[in-house]
Amino acid sequence: MVIYFSGTGNSLAIARAIAEATKDQVLPLVEAVRQDLSKEKRIGLVYPSYDFNAPPAVRNLVPRLKLNPQAYVFIIIPCGAQAGNSSWTVRKLLQQKGIEVAYIHKIRVPDNSAIVFGRNPNDQKWKFERFSKRLETILSDIRAERRAHHYSWWSPLAWIMGTERMQQWMIRTFRPSVNAEKCIGCGICTRVCPMRNIALTDRETPNDRSAEVAAIGPHCTACLACLHACPQQAIETGNNPTLKERQYRHPQIKTTDLFLRK
Ligand SMILES: Cc1cc2nc3c(=O)[nH]c(=O)nc-3n(C[C@H](O)[C@H](O)[C@H](O)COP(=O)(O)O)c2cc1C
Ligand code: SF4
Ligand code: SF4
Predict the structure, then answer these.
(1) pLDDT of 122-143, one tens digit each?
(2) Is the shortest distance between the CB of 197 and ligand 3 below 6 Å?
(3) pTM beyond 0.85
(4) N or C: which end of the chain has fewer CB within 10 A?
C-alpha cells in the first residue's frame, strides 16, 4: 500500500508511479488511518516537505496507522529544494510504534509554495528533467526492497525552521482566505482539501453568482491545495492576488484525482 498526503499532486504522482511499479494500491492518509493495514507486507508513505518538516497533519495521523511491524516501510519526500527533518520526524514516530523505516529518499519537484512570495511554481519545470531519473532510482530500490536512508536533515536552517513553533507560525502566516466576491460556490476546494477543512456555507446575502460561499475551518495546514485548485482564483494568501498562470498542479494529475471521498 502506498499512502500519500498531497496538496497539488506531486506526492500523488510519485505514489502512483511506485504503486504501478510494485503492483500496489494508493490510499490518501486521511482514509488510511481508518483501515487495518496490519496485513500489508509493504507500506509506503509519500508526503511533501513543509517548512523543513513533515506536514503537521502527517505527524498527527501517522501514529494512528495500523501497520505490520514486519512490513518493508519506505518514505519518499517530494520537496522544492530542502526536505530538512521531514522524514526524520516521521521515522521517529514510527519507531515509537515498533516500526523501522527501511528506505528514505527525497525528490525535487516544483515548489507549490513559491506562489506565497508572488513567484510562479510553473517556472520551475526544469526540475522535472532530474525528477524522472531520480524516480527511476527510487522505483528500482523499492522494487528490490533495498535499505538506505538518504537524509537531508543536517542543515542548521532545518532545525530552526522545522520546529513545531516555527511551523505553526508559518501556517498562521500563509493560511489562505476566501475572497467572497470571486467565489461561485462550486465546491471544488471542499473536495481537494486533504484536511476536509472547507465547507460551503449560505451567503448572508445571496448574489447573482451563488447562494453559497466557501469557508475555511480551523484545521488548515497551509498546504495551498485549495488555492491552486480554485477555478475562480478566489483563494488567496498574503497580499498577492492569485493568478491563474501561477496555479500549480503536477502535470500528470487532474484536479479530480485529488478529490477525497465524500
Ligand atoms: C506550507 C508549505 C511549506 C513548504 N515548505 C517546503 C520546505 O521547507 N522545503 C521544500 O523544499 N519545499 C517546501 N514546500 C514545497 C513542497 O514540499 C513541494 O511543492 C511538494 O512537492 C508539494 O507536494 P504536493 O504537490 O504533493 O502537495 C512547501 C510547500 C508548502 C505548501
Ligand atoms: S473552489 Fe473557489 S469558487 Fe469554488 S467554492 Fe472554493 S473558493 Fe469558491
Ligand atoms: S484549507 Fe486549503 S490550505 Fe488549508 S488545509 Fe485545506 S486545502 Fe490546505
Answers:
(1) 999 899 988 999 999 999 999 9
(2) yes
(3) yes
(4) C
